[in-house]
Inverse folding.
């Protein structure tokens, strides 16, 4: 299931990550945001796969491979986007954001609400505020 969710999303997301780091250092806001955004998804998917009988070692290797593929996509995005006009960055950014929102709305929120109830809405807002806070730290540092 998680592979089907990530196959259409990961290329656009990783290319966008790479493009966002052209001629700049890796941002703490980016690392924190990626961690906060992907940890609940990976935990939820790992539990579902484990409940369906998938071996733990297979789950770990799948996540490791997905991390390597995402890193490679970011490297490709960094190299390929350097020479492209900025409007291409916006196109891939929009694709990545749209695919992430679609995946969250379709798979994560209904499942989370079913298991967590009203608290899911509050935690979603707190997660969004945490991402904004981390982003603001980047602007304070400059």
């Amino acid at each position: 299931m998680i592979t089907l969710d990530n196959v259409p999303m990961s290329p656009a997301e990783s290319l966008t990550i790479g493009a966002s780091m052209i001629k700049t250092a890796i941002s703490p806001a980016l690392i924190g945001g990626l961690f906060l955004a992907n940890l609940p998804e990976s935990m939820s998917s790992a539990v579902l796969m484990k409940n369906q009988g998938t071996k733990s070692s297979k789950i770990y290797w799948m996540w490791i491979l997905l991390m390597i593929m995402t890193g490679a996509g970011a490297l490709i995005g960094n190299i390929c986007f350097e020479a492209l006009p900025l409007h291409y960055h916006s196109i891939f950014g929009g694709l990545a954001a749209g695919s992430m929102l679609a995946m969250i709305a379709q798979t994560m929120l209904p499942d989370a609400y079913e298991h967590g109830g009203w608290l899911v809405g509050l935690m979603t807002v707190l997660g969004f505020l945490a991402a904004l806070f981390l982003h603001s730290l980047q602007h304070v540092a400059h």
Summary: Residues 86-116 form the longest helix (31 residues).
